[in-house]
């Protein structure tokens, strides 16, 4: 029985460090190669020694696929390819290829330069690693080798995020990466055709949430910003450089434009500028509106949003500032926060999730007195708002994708075990397909029932279909023909042709048998009687 | 043979010397199929007089029989169709010939073209039932053809010409075309998606011509909703809609449980489902049709606005509900805290259906669709449904107000118009009014004017609301002086609609500034300032 084996090295019943091994029809593919935000020791990278105990990775893996540029999906790539050693192809989409090295370099800087870690990958390693990358277009089928082919589908989420279909012969697996089924201000919704894969590996970050309309959140957000600015307060929006930041920028930009507002909006760090450049470049990956209007005006060329300078923070009057990082744990956003926290007219809006222990998490949970380094106590008087602009599919979105793709099996990764359990139950109930949720290092085996393609000669097909009256798709049809198995291929031809091809003469088998008849009459009379009997 | 041809040519030349003869000579001269094709093309460009049509048709047919090249025959067949369209010409004489040629034709393309010609002939002779009968029979015979093009045309023909009146000429009907619906229905499962589409279209055509479709088709049509091809799904959505209008009250069972619901509700749920289809063509189609399903039960209708929020296995209130609650509890401007939307009431895990009930949140999906075509369709549908149901109008208000912030101007404009149409049924809450008024600052004039019109006929619930509107409008007056006329008109209507609410404001307004008195109800000439 042919089978597909899936082993998550990361992201199995967990969020972060996405890395999934798939063996399909003798081919081994690694999906994503991410790092874990929560750890700083060996656990931050997947355990690649699991793949081969002592052999070379290149010999074992046929290819590596990276779904998008978030570090929990690509953060371990240089470590994997340069330090562990892998020389095979790495596939990702064009925008991912462009943005990924920027983020990796940033990550490296923080770990090595700021935290002073040694034994980490170097800039050169990132460059070498990127040389192994093969970029793919949407819906382009890439032959990795003669049998293995991959194809990218649009996934929303962030610029360049893609879902990948991995196909060997008739067996196929779809890996979604992270995706979003509701379009946002700059990206469209994920889309897949009815490819009916044997297995769909889906993320399940929001396995138990069904979100309400995005528009409420947008309206709330705009209203809060507007009110604060009108009051003369300053708004701080801590973001990660890519993804949500762009969406919120567009949101504010269009709002400013429409309302003719004058308060300045600033955007911190050079990293983001570089990223915005790529957003301008890959306009085809964005949504309908931006694609349609970019001839007149590129949405990412912000009129109202300017680069931020440290000195601006002390300027009087209202302003809106986007600053990195998103969880207020370090860097510019924290500096600005400290400056502004004392004034109740100001506001901080957290647009995303915050990990426990960060300043962001503390203020969101209602803490008003923060102990900063150096024992000083910071009193937070500014308003604190939380607003979820996360770009993952909610439970309904996940179900919708399953309905679109019609897989035979579903496997959940990238989510919390308890929530997965719930969704798993729902999926099984709704679609009557089996659903799996392996933990890290646990192997799931799925038996497939691949159909074997047989070439049929046109003459035979026409002759046989002509016999039946109404062709009925639903029913199997009986056919007469000869099956030739030759050179690893199957062909169905008419018997005559088969004989000719194989150079065989036609033999007729005649079955005879002897029957004793007790009959008193004469011989020819008996014969005649039997003959007449048979004739009758 | 040659002589005979000359003879006929001569005879024709006697009566109508121009067209037909020239064509005939040309065709005879043609040595290769390509030449003949050229001549035919030239001929097709010129109009033909009514008197000469028949002659031309004869000549064409003659050549048709002789011609070996399929492409030329194809052209002739299409010419025949064109010619029979000529006004004043009765094509029944060539029908027999066309049917005869059909029988001997081998090429699928030519067959399809001939059937098309027959369709044209048939549509010209709709009053003649026996002709129609015969054509339908011919079409049924060719339904088994292996080419999708031919089957397509056959179905089209049946759809256009199939008998609509029951009971007329029963004995004839009982033979080949015994039940057109059944024949077409069989092709819902054809292996070719184009034929499936044609079958559904034919069914719709029958409906348009007045035939009452059988309810049995409903279950078949439902299966087609899951088809792989978007054209099929799109047509199936239409068919389901038609059926739901025909049999709104009949009862259908829900599979997997032994409950039953009204057909229109079931259909509504199914079409809602298609609003989240993979193809945007289908989504637009579905969203549009939703608007015209007014018989649907109100609880189904209301479900379309609720995605049934749940968080961590528990029910979570929607932001709209929260907004309402905040409003009613008086602390309107208080911010939301982290974890404020933490779920409160327990909900039974089993009772939460993620997509089963279909209708769930259809409009939420439709209104935040990626393609603005879908969004516009959804807004239109909302409008139509809200016009017929005041309670729904009340509920969908929040969503409509949200649409005022859409990226695309067309959508914003559409939603403002929609709002105006349903304004009789609704009263704006203060927070909603806030959003509406925010749009006043829009830099597009169309939008502003539409909004003024909207404000002319809205009901506002509180005195503060009115005040807000006034202040905003007057602010607007200074910002966009070009809008003067429109704003004055708006103020006037706003005032006369809310006399009781404006009354307490009058002293304040009068003391602030003398020209603020425009909104006063008894002041019917606002132009005096």
Using brief descriptors, characterize the structure shown.
heterodimer, A: 536 residues, alpha/beta, Metallo-beta-lactamase, Chain A, Rossmann fold, 3 domains, seven-stranded mixed sheet, 16 helices, B: 529 residues, mainly alpha, Leucine-rich Repeat Variant, two-stranded antiparallel sheet, disordered N terminus, ARM-type_fold (chain B), Integrator complex subunit 4 (chain B), repeat (chain B), nucleus (chain B), ARM-like (chain B)
CATH superfamily of the largest domain in chain A: Ribonuclease Z/Hydroxyacylglutathione hydrolase-like
Q: What is the overall number of helices of chain B?
A: 28
Distance between the termini of chain A: 54 Å
Beta-strand share of residues of chain A: 15-25%
Strand composition percent of chain B: under 5%
Structural class of chain B: mainly alpha
List segments of chain A where confidence is low: pLDDT < 50 over at least 5 consecutive residues: none
Radius of gyration of chain A: 32 Å
Give the full name of the CATH homologous superfamily of the domain at 215-308 and 354-425 in chain B: Leucine-rich Repeat Variant
How far is it from the N-terminal to the C-terminal residue of chain B, by CA? 96 Å
Strand order of the largest sheet of chain A: 6-5-4-3-2-1-22
Q: What percentage of residues of chain A falls in helices of 4 or more residues?
A: 25-40%
- Global shape of chain A: elongated
From the coordinates shown, what is the CATH architecture of the domain at 215-308 and 354-425 in chain B? Alpha Horseshoe
Describe, in plain words, how this protein is organized in 3D.
By secondary structure, chain A is α/β, with parallel strands linked by helices. Chain A contains 16 helices and 25 strands. Chain A has three domains: 3-210 and 391-439, Ribonuclease Z/Hydroxyacylglutathione hydrolase-like (Metallo-beta-lactamase, Chain A), CATH 3.60.15.10; 214-386, Rossmann fold; 452-535, no CATH class. Chain A has a seven-stranded mixed sheet. In chain A, strands 7-8-9-10-11-20-21 form a seven-stranded mixed sheet, covered by helices on one side. In chain A, a hairpin with a 2-residue loop joins strand 24 and strand 25 (489-493). The longest helix of chain A has 21 residues, at 94-114. Chain B is an all-alpha fold. Among the domains of chain B are: 215-308 and 354-425, Leucine-rich Repeat Variant (Alpha Horseshoe), CATH 1.25.10; 426-528. Chain B has 28 helices and six strands. In chain B, the strands form three sheets. Chain B has a two-stranded antiparallel ribbon. Chain B has a two-stranded antiparallel ribbon with strand order 3-4. In chain B, strand 3 and strand 4 form a beta hairpin. In chain B, helix 14 packs antiparallel against helix 15, helix 22 packs parallel to helix 24 (445-456) and helix 24 (445-456) packs parallel to helix 26 (484-497). The longest helix of chain B is centred in the first third of the chain and has 17 residues, at 50-66. Chain B is elongated. The model of chain B is unreliable at 1-17, 167-177, 309-317, 325-356 and 513-529 (pLDDT under 50). The chains are: A alpha/beta (536), B mainly alpha (529). Chains A and B meet through helix 6, helix 7, strand 19, helix 12 and helix 13 of A and strand 3, helix 18, helix 19, helix 21 and helix 23 of B.
